[in-house]
Amino acid sequence: MFGISELAIILIVVILVLGAKRLPELARSAGKSARILKAEAKAMKEPKGGGAEAGAPRVIRGETVTRPDAGRPGPEAGQPPRDHA
């Protein structure tokens, strides 16, 4: 499909466009996406009841994201949510 020289030219263009600082971040993101895609493809090939309990959530390892409002106290039980304006 592509030869070595074409791939080298594409790599050089990508480095020039994105910059060397963002290249590791891009590679990390592509690796995570590939792992998720592989896990989903494997899950689709498995039979419905294969190995795990029916209805049990599947865990896909990835990045943990914290919400910006995680430190604020939430509404008390039985009270409507407050407006954070």
What's the Cα radius of gyration? 22 Å
Structural classification: mainly alpha
The level of helicity is: 40-55%
CA(first)-CA(last) distance: 56 Å
Given as residue ranges, the uncertain stretches (5+ residues, pLDDT < 50) are: none
Mean pLDDT: 75
InterPro entries: TatA/B/E, TatA/E
Keywords: Cell membrane, Membrane, Protein transport, Translocation, Transmembrane, Transmembrane helix, Transport
Subcellular location: Cell membrane
Main location: membrane
Q: What does the secondary structure layout of this molecule look like, with pairings?
A:
Layout: H1 4-18, H2 23-45
Notable traits:
flat; 85 residues; membrane; mainly alpha; 2 helices
Could you explain how this protein is built, in words?
The protein is built from two helices and no strands. The termini are far apart. The longest helix is centred in the middle third of the chain and has 23 residues, at 23-45. Helices cover 45% and strands 0% of the residues. The protein has a domain at 4-45.
Give a brief description:
The protein is mostly helical and 85 residues long.
